[in-house]
Design a protein that fits this description.
15 helices; 24% helix; TIM Barrel; single chain; 8-stranded parallel β-barrel; 3 domains; Immunoglobulin-like; alpha+beta
């Protein structure tokens, strides 16, 4: 029987590293050949001497399903009417040494539920998307000038059923989306959902890059989850791992008996940190595979972005005594980002990078790597080290707070408190805080306030929003048992209010990536560990004043220099009794006074709460003109967001 042979141009592009829809050629696809319906299989196995398709349909005997070798570079193909959608299969590969390996399809769209490892023939078409408004909204907005607060979560442990079993993608949509909306997050970031054999790898050690893990249902079920998120104005980001893969026998490792997807030399191939294998990012066929994979998730699952895992592991050659840049990886990352943004300019490409490599978020045409965001790992490590210190000793770590503002605008940063910081004995964010029970909550509220007011977009791992006391237990659900405990409930109330203020206060997000959006008032008060600064919006005199006190001492009539002679209203105080605080708040508006202080022409006198953050908004003067020339008359109601136009 004849087969639908790929074009020479498609094959050429694949081997050139430029077939960015290689998933439409490789894998298992329904075809009609000479009027006969069946499944066409295509696989790349350059070192194999023969390849057969095996499965339940032939009792795992591939003698009648041998694939045809199309070229010397190892593309194999087979069309057969014996297979239908839903059938399980693997490739039986005979190596050059005569060994036989059973491999899952690298391009499979669906897989058996672990511990089973076969691929499943699956048709991705047929899902009825209803997220056109979301896609149009994405195109209209510039993400750099919008609020971005990401909720990082692991689907398997966010919440489980009473019997301990997993929710499906569809069931999870009904659970997660109302919760995310209630807390004000703009995006969900899912730990990897590619198929992976071991639960405790959290998806970071994958075998099926095109296969949404079957733990939670079918690919169409995941599409439903994402579609529902979009209908509720929630973006979805995937954690994505183009650097390395697991070495399980059925996966990509030594696919045809020899290095295929991985580097040839052991020194380059072996990822000794995670016990995995590093992708050969210079191999054209691997580039086609990985770039196609990114575009596949965008096209078929309407993904809004990728958090690209372990970029530091790709930037430098592994297993070297000295850091040696990996030019192959650098070229790949630039090529990847160019391809993604060419397909969809609104995508978030976020580098998880702990190095000081320059211009990670710089454009490729200017020598950058081409990401549009990078995790600020330096800020995260510094502020957590500062917070974990005894408050008496924080004055000796003063630079841990100030140093980040030296480089805060060198990249487009996201400030992450991720899963990596609350697992493997590192303790939860709440339990990292020193002191007694009350002090832990007070300092966590302060930490979150500083997260929100520091330049950069935001990310928080699940459980942090209600102050989970235990670190992430990666086989159990979050500690929902804490619902109803007063301090945890008040922490959640505080967090929701904090995010709401963040989203409606333009100075807190509008200029996140430029010096124009930030200005220290006082960064030098080492002895009292009090920091004050201004966050500015794009409009003239649109700003908020932020004061952070990292000690348990209360101060009254504390002077803060301010730039404008007006009244200042405290729009958030983390020490409010409603949030579990001691009530050292500034209830009344504060009138600026003549007298230079902190290098400003005016100053205010206010109460500084213990272990607290205060955010103050400048109240515009009565009759102040707006850009359109109309006067905006402010009454007391204006504090509640109401305006009376003259």
């Amino acid at each position: 029987m004849s087969i639908a042979i790929p074009t020479d141009f498609e094959i050429h592009l694949f081997h050139e590293g430029n077939l960015f829809k290689s998933h439409e050629l490789f894998g298992a696809h329904s075809k009609k050949v000479n009027g006969v319906e069946g499944i066409q299989f295509c696989v790349w196995a350059p070192h194999a001497t023969s390849v057969r398709v095996v499965g339940d349909f032939n009792n795992w005997d591939g003698s009648n399903h041998e694939m045809q070798k199309l070229n010397d570079q190892g593309v194999w193909i087979l069309f057969t009417p014996d297979v239908k959608e839903g059938d399980i299969y693997k490739y039986e590969i005979v190596t050059r040494t005569g060994d036989i390996r059973l491999k899952a399809d690298p391009y499979a769209f669906y897989s058996e539920v672990r511990p089973n490892t076969a691929s499943i023939v699956y048709d991705l078409s047929g899902y009825n998307w209803d997220d056109k408004k979301w896609k149009q909204k994405k195109k209209r907005r510039t993400v750099y000038e919008k609020p971005l607060f990401i909720y990082e979560l692991h689907l398997g442990t966010w919440k489980k059923k009473e019997d301990g079993s997993l929710f499906s993608y569809r069931e999870m949509a009904e659970e997660i989306i109302p919760y995310v909306l209630e807390h004000g997050f703009t995006h969900i970031e899912l730990l990897p959902v590619i198929e992976h054999p071991y639960d405790r790898s959290w998806g970071y050690q994958g075998t099926g890059y095109f296969s949404a893990t079957s733990r939670y249902g079918t690919p169409h079920d995941l599409m439903y989850f994402i579609n529902q998120c979009h209908q509720n104005d929630i973006g979805v980001i995937l954690d994505w791992v183009p650097g390395h893969f697991c070495k399980d026998a059925h996966g990509l490792y030594m696919f045809d008996g020899e290095p295929t997807y991985e580097y040839l030399h052991e020194q380059d191939r072996e990822n000794q940190v995670w016990g995995t294998a590093n992708f050969d990012l210079g191999k054209p066929e691997v580039q086609s595979f990985l770039i196609s994979n990114a575009l596949f998730w965008i096209e078929h699952f309407h993904i809004d972005g990728f958090r690209v895992d372990a970029v530091a592991n790709m930037l430098y050659w592994p297993n070297r005594d000295e850091l040696q840049p990996n030019e192959l990886a650098l070229s790949f990352l630039r090529k990847l980002n160019e391809a993604v943004f060419n397909a969809d300019p609104s995508i978030l490409m976020i580098a998880e990078d702990s190095t000081d490599w320059p211009m990670v978020t710089g454009p490729t045409y200017d020598g950058g790597l081409g990401f549009n965001y990078k995790w600020n790992m330096g800020w995260m490590n510094d502020i957590l080290e500062y917070m974990e210190a005894d408050p008496i000793h924080r004055k000796y770590l003063h630079e841990k707070v100030t140093f980040s503002l030296i480089y805060a605008f060198s990249e487009n940063f996201i400030l992450p408190f991720s899963h990596d910081e609350v697992v493997h004995g590192k303790k939860s964010l709440l339990n990292k805080m020193p002191g007694d029970y009350w002090q832990k909550f007070a300092q966590l509220r302060l930490l979150y306030g500083y997260l929100v007011t520091h330049p950069g977009k935001k990310l928080l791992f699940m459980g942090g929003e209600f102050g989970q006391y235990d670190e992430w237990k990666d086989l159990e659900q979050l500690d929902w048992i804490l619902d109803g405990y007063e301090m945890h409930d008040k922490m959640r109330d505080y967090f929701k209010e904090l995010v709401a203020i963040y989203k409606k206060s333009r100075p807190l997000f509008e200029i996140d990536h430029h010096y124009d959006g930030f200005e220290w008032i006082d960064a030098d008060n080492r002895d009292q560990s009090i920091f004050s600064f201004i966050r500015k919006g794009k409009k003239p005199n649109e700003f908020v004043v932020v004061v952070c006190n990292f000690t348990p001492v209360v101060y009254h009539d504390y002077k803060i220099g301010v730039p404008v002679d007006t009244r200042y209203v405290e729009i958030l105080n983390s020490d409010d009794e409603a949030f579990g605080g001691s009530g050292q708040v500034n209830k009344k508006s504060i009138q600026a006074m003549e007298g230079s202080y902190h290098g400003r022409p005016y100053h205010i006198e206010m109460t500084i709460p213990p272990f607290g953050i205060s955010i103050l908004r400048a109240v515009k003067k009565r009759g102040e003109k707006q850009k359109n020339g109309k006067k905006t008359v402010r009454s007391n109601a204006s504090r509640r967001g109401k305006r009376i136009k003259a």
